[in-house]
Structures are given as C-alpha cells and as structure tokens.
Amino acid sequence: MKKQIKKRHYILIALLGLMVIGSASYTTWNRLDPNYTCAMCHEVRPACITWEGSVHADIACTQCHGTALESFRSPKEKLSMVYTHFTSRKTFEDIHLTEEQSLRIAARCAECHQAEHAAWRSGAHSTTYKDIFMDVEHNRMERPYWDCFRCHGMFYDGDIDDLMSMEGDVEKWYIKEEKQGNKPAMTCLACHQGHREQPRNIAYKDMDELFRAALSKKEKTPPTSLYMRADKRHIPATKLVPIKMYDGEELKQVITDPNTILCMQCHSPNTARQLGSEDDKTPTGIYEGMSCITCHDPHSNLLKTDYKNVHTQK
To answer: What SS3 state is found at 164?
Structure first.
C-alpha cells in the first residue's frame, strides 16, 4: 500500500515537473527573437519583416497576438495553427482574421492607445450592429444586404441572412444573436493595419542636417489603411485612387489627400461622384481641398472646434 502511495506521489511530482518545464519553455519561446520562433513559419515571415520596420518593432508579438496560456480558447486556437501549418499548404495570403480575433486585437490596441480608444468610444465609429441594422426608418428605405458589411461589419464572418431575420414587417426584423448585436461594427482594424511599414520617429535634435532637409521635403505618410472585406486585406491609404468630384458636369476638384480618400470609401458620393450626393461630405467653396481631419477628430469624428457646416459653403 505504501509503495503504491509513493508511486503515485512520484508520478504526480513528475507531472508537475513536466508542467513547470513546459510552461517555462513556452514562456521563454515567446520572449525570444521572433526571427528564430514565429518568423520561422513561412506563413508569417512577411508580417514579421514589416513589423521590424514599424513603430511597433519594440512590442513583442505576444502583446498583440496573445499566447496559448491566456484563456481557455487560446490553446485550441494555437494548436489549430500548428495543425494547419503541418497539414495544409498555406501561405501568408491565406491567413485572415476572424471577427473575434479582430476584436481581441482592437482591445489590445486600446491598452496603449487609450486616448484614441476613448475618442472612438465617444463617437459614431463605435456604433454597434444593433444601432446600424435595427434602424427601422432606414430599413424601410433600403433593405439591408451583403454590401452593407463593406463599411458596417468589415470583419463579420457571415452574410446578411446569418446576421438578421427579415421576415414580415420591418418592425419585426431582428438580429439573431443578441451578443452579435452589441458588438462594434467598426473597430481599429477597419482603418489601421497592424503590420505596416511606418518608420519610428527620430527626435529632431538627433537628426543631421541632410536628414532634416530631406524630411522637410517629404510628405508625411498617414498610418491609415482601408480593410477590404472582399479581399480580406488592407490597402494603405496612400495607395487609394485619387477621386474626382463634380458639380453637375463641372469638375470641382481632384481629392488627393490619403486620409480624405479613406473617409470617402464609406462616406461616399453616388456613382457620378456628385458633390453632396449620397453620404458625400466634400468641403466646398473657400474650404475646398481641406482634409477631413483638419476639422474632424479621426477617431471620434467629432469637430475639433466650432466650425460652421463647411460642406454646403459656396
């Protein structure tokens, strides 16, 4: 009997020892240079290269992506990645975030970018699926369909019929899952790409004269990108096509500001690109050519100061 008890103790001690060693090894793995851990997988190597040249280069992968030990769902998610790596011929282009993953990453963005998160929470861009898709008056004018997700729910994993029941009168329509209805329809990743080349700032006093001269001639690259739901990819705002705007047949202006073009992907005119049509907010008159973020806080969308309505000025 005593021998059996001792044997059980030894087995228990051995198991505990293995757990400690495994946990310590995994923790060490997460703290190592990702070039010798994460980036050894061909699927994520391009993301790692971009990360190394970005403002987030001092932030460890796990601070945004988490580890397998942080929650009950994490081990399943990480083991699924390992299984897919060894059983499927996946490339970097095949990796896409689910909506749940995008929300978790956005929550981690907020841990550092607290002011931006607070501004987002206070404005219309934090609106929920319920706010958008349960607007009875709007639903009477236009029945929700799949392309609504292009702006409102870029990371949603299903189609409109998965989200809503639209049988009978408009007043009886409802979102099938209450939890889904309370999720934000537009998160940080709608306009920001986590892995994006955005060199870290150098203190002005530390620059040499040649660098200062070059910097003064170079336009600042905005750290914004548009998430394309159809392609499940981000397009940097600087690569979006300039937009021509018309007043009747008269060409009023060619909009080249990357952030304004980004805003106009959702706050867009009709197909004829007419000023003031659909949800167009192009400034006119003496305000022509101004960037959206000259007047609006980019995260809350609220006015920075007491401007008049510049969108209708002649």
So the answer is: strand
- Report the candidate in 294, 293, 292 with the shortest Cα–Cα distance to residue 282: 292
Paired tokens of 84: 């897919």
Contact 284, 252 (CB under 8 A): yes
pLDDT per position as a tens digit, 4-24: 666 676 677 777 777 767 666
Distance between CA atoms of residues 166 and 303, nearest Å: 36
Written as six digits, the tokens of 9 are 């103790």
What does the CA dihedral 268, 93, 146, 263 come to, rounded to 10 degrees? -20
250-267 tens-digit pLDDT = 998 899 888 899 999 999
Per the structure block, which two tokens stand in for 175? Answer: 């979102």
Q: Which of 233, 246, 283, 240 is nearest to 258 (CA)?
A: 240
Closest to 259 in 3D by CA, of 232, 231, 219: 219
pTM over 0.85, yes/no: no
